[in-house]
């Protein structure tokens, strides 16, 4: 594990050049004014109101704990990735073995929540990068996906956020991510098309420039995509 000053500088200049803010989750300025416990208290009451409005009897044994369960689930689980304190610490290592080919971490499970309907998005993310001097622990890629998934999301933004974070951590633009996911707002309600899924991609650096690299990546993850 290391903090290479040259890499730090390249990360900083990368951030200045590329982090435009457009891919940021739209948050209010006072998003973290309330503590988690205060948020849970409020949401518990809000969920209670929704259920009462729907006519549910909250004295029923099975329903009594629902407002509390939902409030805790929102704050501590499915939307926990809104809090910057929960951004995973991604340790990097020297690429001592000089591995110069792409590394692919595929079939990373994605559980997210569609911000339009607050229904689940379930799928797989596939990540590739080419080391520019440092390598990242494999599990950190899964952790980065999980962090950005635990927010109200649209798939396109989540895809870009994952790539930007890995570019920052690795100090290289040569990062790619493809996400294939089912949106329950499409599958279980509305148009109710249970079979459709959504594929998004974000290619940085050499992946954007070199078709052969994109093709190699897609071959590794077995997706046939036309360019
Ligand atoms: N681009 C994008 N759209 C999404 C995502 N998740 C859900 N949507 C879409 O957001 C749209 C919201 O459209 P609206 O017309 O406001 O909502 P709606 O009346 O519930 O639409 P229907 O789902 O068609 O019934 C829907 O078409 C959803 O399929 C996403 O991750 N990315
Ligand atoms: Zn939706």
UniProtKB/TrEMBL annotation:
It holds the Pfam family GTP_cyclohydroI. Zn(2+) binds at residues 114, 117, 185. Keywords: GTP-binding, Hydrolase, Metal-binding, Nucleotide-binding, One-carbon metabolism, Zinc. Its EC number is 3.5.4.16. GO terms for cellular component: cytoplasm. Residues 43-221 form the GTP cyclohydrolase I domain. PROSITE patterns: GTP_CYCLOHYDROL_1_1, GTP_CYCLOHYDROL_1_2. Pathway: Cofactor biosynthesis; 7,8-dihydroneopterin triphosphate biosynthesis; 7,8-dihydroneopterin triphosphate from GTP: step 1/1. GO terms for molecular function: GTP binding; GTP cyclohydrolase I activity; zinc ion binding. The keyword Metal-binding applies. It catalyses: GTP + H2O = 7,8-dihydroneopterin 3'-triphosphate + formate + H(+). The keyword Disulfide bond does not apply. Residues 1-23 are annotated as: Disordered. Homopolymer. Belongs to the GTP cyclohydrolase I family. PANTHER family: GTP CYCLOHYDROLASE 1, GTP CYCLOHYDROLASE I. This is GTP cyclohydrolase 1. It comes from Robiginitalea biformata (strain ATCC BAA-864 / DSM 15991 / KCTC 12146 / HTCC2501). The gene is folE.
